[in-house]
Amino acid sequence: GESVGLHLPTLSVQEGDNSIINCAYSNSASDYFIWYKQESGKGPQFIIDIRSNMDKRQGQRVTVLLNKTVKHLSLQIAATQPGDSAVYFCAEGDSWGKFQFGAGTQVVVTP
Amino acid sequence: DTGVSQNPRHKITKRGQNVTFRCDPISEHNRLYWYRQTLGQGPEFLTYFQNEAQLEKSRLLSDRFSAERPKGSFSTLEIQRTEQGDSAMYLCASSLRGETEAFFGQGTRLTVV
Fold first, then answer.
1. Cβ contacts of B97 on chain A, cutoff 8 Å
2. What percent of chain B has pLDDT over 90?
3. pLDDT category, A3, cuts 50, 70, 90?
4. DSSP structure class, residue B102
5. What are the angstrom distances between the C-alpha of A57 and each of A2, A22, B72, B97, B109?
6. Per the CB < 8 Å rule, is B40 touching A98?
7. Which of B38, B100, B103 is most worth mutating to test chain A (most A CB atoms within 10 A of its CB)?
8. Of B68, B48, B69, which is closest to residue B58 (Cα–Cα)?
9. pLDDT tens digit sequence for B29-82
């Protein structure tokens, strides 16, 4: 069936560097795409979303890029900080608000 | 604290027992979702409500699982005759209709022994 997945299971980043987390999706009918951050022992936390009719959206220190041609989604985190260490999930959603999550990428920020 | 409250935080039960979890969403949110998450995996959609109406159930939700949201506020998820494979984190989230941002609770971790 349709699925959302991630390219890399673990990403190690030096503090202050930029991080890029990638995600592949296969359901071209999804209305929007979302990035969530999950810290240990907590539920997922919304970071940013992007509608399917957009290709770029910026937030505070984060940028999401959507390439519908190759069905690829990425999250860029600028000036990565220790507090950014977490598991990051991409998810795709429909107009009803139901989300399908990928498997996640562990981001480890090293000093 | 996201404003979504789940109870209990942890539950250990013997195989074959029934368990019930509660979720209190953010009060003005009309949408409520249940997800299940196992270690190292992303959350898997189980079911969701708009107000008190259950709009969709995943194929993952066997007949042993039932969810309710009787007054359109809190929700309960019941698992009957628990199996070891039911061991997971059960997450609840809520949102406003039309909004993409869902707020998750901290989850209920179920261990079936």
1. 97
2. 84
3. very low
4. -
5. 24, 15, 34, 22, 34
6. no
7. B100
8. B48
9. 999 999 999 988 899 999 999 999 999 899 878 899 999 999 889 999 999 999
Q: Average pLDDT, whole number, for chain A?
A: 89
Q: What is the pLDDT of residue A4?
A: 54
Residue that the structure tokens 């250990």 belong to? B12
Say if residue A82 is preceded by a cis peptide, omega within 30 of 0.
no
pLDDT at A86: 96
**Helix or strand holding residue B69 (H, E):** none
Query: What is the pLDDT averaged over residues A54-81?
Result: 96
Question: What are B50's two structure tokens?
Answer: 């708009």
Facing B42 at nearest CB: one of A32, A49, A89: A89
State how far the Cα of B57 lies from the Cα of A30, in Å rounded to an integer.
19
Scan for tokens 């009803």, then name that residue: A96
Contact B105 A101 (CB under 8 A): no
Partners of residue A91 in chain B, C-beta under 8 Å: 42
Do B106 and A41 make contact, defined as CB atoms within 8 angstroms?
yes
State how far the Cα of B46 lies from the Cα of B37, in Å rounded to an integer.
10
Element (H, E) at A41: none
Task: Say whether pLDDT at A93 is over 70.
Answer: yes
> Which residue from A34, A102, A103 is facing B100, i.e. has the nearest CB?
A34
The residue of chain A with its CA nearest to that of B57 is: A98
